[in-house]
Write a structure and sequence with these properties.
Blueprint lengths: L9 E5 L2 E5 L21 E4 L1 H14 L1 H4 L18 H12 L6 H7 L4 H12 L23 H9 L3 H4 L18 H13 L5 H8 L3 H12 L14 H7 L4 H4 L18 H13 L5 H7 L4 H12 L14 H12 L18 H13 L5 H7 L4 H12 L15
Parallel strand pairs: 2-3
Antiparallel strand pairs: 1-2
Length: 411
């Protein structure tokens, strides 16, 4: 049974044209953009027959992937029901012109005229939107609370305070400060203790009882703590250590502040720990051929001096941001995509009630740069994998709302 076309007025604006859906107005002009139309917006009206023709074309070219009435049941394929017609039109035209190469879509649109693209876009704009994805409930019936990785990291790090200080600034000679170290380095270091690559029986036993997720939380917690010089003595000569440390600057920075997250910053670190670690690289207890080659010729005195030099330097916080809450993340997205993902800009897609797997896929393509958009690249460049998933699920659970664009008289 064919669903009736809703009797409502909607106008859609695209680069070079706009579509106003007037199903009951017989005097509307045909849905055809003028040849050579520029980027300025102008009105074009789609009649009820145009919309019905759009449905016929969509049933032939689009329904197999995007589902009946534009509601997709295929993983990785978006809903397009009630999507903003100008946005649909622009994307279809991009596929047609090869600006967005993708075999399935290219094959679906390559035989469609520009007039057909307008009609298909108009048709999908008349449909009822998809229903929001259900929100899973806990055993108690309430929605699961959002996990806070920073608080989880603080809780997991409580057991480390005895050696490394409550906020990761060591007051125990021989125990390294962890505050202000890049999470990538701390994750690699904990893995090395787990696997035995770094020899330390106590750390190995402690690391074995901590999951990878807990380690990641702890690493984030310590990275966001204010770094300070370790409150421990340094036995060497810092002035002499400065000259001896010149060979270390390439990886650890001139003053011990590393630019590469894979290399630890040494500024403000406990001197005894630095000396012990350097000796371990020298004798091979810690496996790293680059480090062994650099420190192999150092005697015990030079090692102590280098450690004293770095211990006296001022540490700096790494470029790691505090995780944003879902409310903060979605507020940024809503600026363009509308409240709860219901875009009122005809050129910006609505994302409310969209498939989560599709949203996640698209956000990742912007994040990696495989899909180009200056604005979206800036928005997604700072997102973690977990935040991308969280945003995708959030918008999939929002209620989608159709939008009506009403053309106004010019005077």
């Amino acid at each position: 049974m064919t669903r009736p076309i809703p009797h409502r007025i909607a106008a859609t604006l695209v680069a070079g044209l706009s579509i106003a859906l007037h199903p009951m107005v017989s005097w509307a002009q045909p849905a055809k953009p003028s040849a050579g139309a520029g980027p300025d917006l102008r009105p074009i009206f789609a009649t009820a027959p145009d919309v019905l023709e759009g449905k016929r074309l969509a049933d032939v070219s689009c329904m197999r992937c995007h589902g009946a009435n534009g509601i997709s049941t295929t993983a990785g394929v978006p809903h397009i029901a009630a999507q903003r017609p100008p946005y649909i039109y622009l994307q279809l035209r991009a596929y047609l012109q090869g600006a967005r190469p993708q075999s399935a879509m290219t094959g679906a649109v390559k035989f469609l005229s520009d007039d057909a693209l307008v009609k298909v876009s108009a048709y999908y704009g008349t449909l009822e939107p998809a229903r929001p994805a259900p929100v899973p409930a806990t055993k108690g019936g309430a929605a699961a609370a959002k996990r806070d990785p920073l608080q989880a990291g603080k809780a997991a790090a409580a057991a480390c305070g005895g050696c490394h200080g409550d906020n990761g600034v060591s007051k125990t000679p021989g125990s390294p400060s962890l505050a202000g170290l890049d999470p990538k380095y701390l994750l690699a270091a904990m893995k090395a203790y787990k696997t035995g690559q770094r020899k330390h029986d106590l750390m190995k036993s402690l690391a074995a009882g901590v999951s990878d997720a807990e380690v990641a939380d702890m690493a984030l917690f310590y990275a966001l703590q204010k770094p300070a010089r370790a409150g421990t003595p340094a036995a060497g000569d810092a002035a002499a250590g400065k000259a001896a440390a010149a060979a270390c600057a390439g990886c650890h920075g001139n003053t011990g502040v590393a630019a590469d997250p894979a290399n630890p910053s040494l500024a403000g670190q406990d001197a005894q720990y630095l000396a012990t670690a350097t000796q371990a690289y020298k004798d091979g207890t810690r496996k790293d051929e680059a480090m062994k080659a650099i420190v192999g010729a150092l005697d015990d005195r030079a090692i102590r001096n280098i450690a004293a030099f770095y211990a006296a330097q001022q540490p700096q916080a790494p470029k790691v941001r505090k995780p944003l809450s879902l409310a903060e993340l979605s507020e940024r997205c809503d600026r363009c995509h509308g409240i709860n993902g219901n875009s009122i800009d005809p050129l910006v897609p609505a994302i409310a009630a969209q498939r989560a797997d599709w949203l996640e896929q698209v956000l990742n393509t912007y994040h990696t740069g495989s899909r180009k958009s200056t604005a979206m690249a800036a928005m997604t460049s700072v997102l973690s994998e977990a935040e991308i998933k969280e945003l995708a699920v959030h918008y999939a659970r929002q209620t989608a709302r159709a939008v009506t664009f009403v053309p106004l008289p010019t005077k």
